[in-house]
Every structure is written in structure tokens, then in C-alpha cells.
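Sequence in, structure out.
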Amino acid sequence: MVLEHIREENKGTFKAFIDGILAGKMTYSQAGENKFIIDHTEVDKQFSGKGVGNRLVIEAVTFARESQQKIVPLCPFARSVFEKTPEIRDVLF
């Protein structure tokens, strides 16, 4: 799986590719200097159950830690990953 992070002014997207095919993406919006909101996670049906969504959330967590930000997971999927994974809650707003 290859992950890509695209940042624009106040928004960003994490994309996951498997064998060159877009397997999933997660979008976020900046909410001030020190936090961002994960608003949507989407995984292509053919890659369902392969951990794509989880990898996208973990990539966002890594980005948050590196940039010293917190995450507001409005997306139900991202919120469920935070609920199930205590070790990533250090970046939870």
C-alpha cells in the first residue's frame, strides 16, 4: 500500500493506493493552527476489509504528531478507530 498526503491551504487528503489503484481516501479541514477535522473516509468496495481505512487514520495520526496538532474525528469511521485504539488517543482533541 502506498500512501499519499496532499495539503492545500485549509484542507487536505490522505490517499491509499494498492497496485497503482486508488483504494481509499480520507479528507480533513484545518480548524485553527493546532487541530484539524477528519470529515470523510472512503474505501473502494474492492478493497473493503483490507485495512485501508485504518491505515489512512494512522497516517493522519502520524501527521498530527509530527506537526503537533490534535484531531477532531467527525467522520464516524475515524471516530470508531479512535474508540478502538487507545494508543492513538494522544492526538485526540
